[in-house]
Design a protein that fits this description.
By secondary structure, this protein is mainly alpha-helical. Helix content is 56%, strand content 10%.
Amino acid sequence: MSCGTPVVSVDRGAMGEIVGDGGVIAKTLNPQDIADALLRVVPDGAFRKRIQKNALKQAKRYNWKTFAQRVYQTFAQYEH
C-alpha cells in the first residue's frame, strides 16, 4: 500500500480496517471470492487508480512513528 499498490485481502481480523479504501476485501477464503475481488481491480483502470491513491493515504496511517506515538499515549494514560 505504501507504494500505491491496491490490496486484495480476505476479511479476517483487522484486515478490513487496515486496507480501508486502499483495496478490495474478499469475504471468504473461497478462491472464487478472491478471484472476484481481483477482477474488480485488474480490468477497471479508473477504479484501480482511485484505490491506488487511497492505498497511499491509508498506508500513512500505519507507520512506526504513528504506532510509537499511539503506544506512548496509551501508556501515558496509566501513569500515576
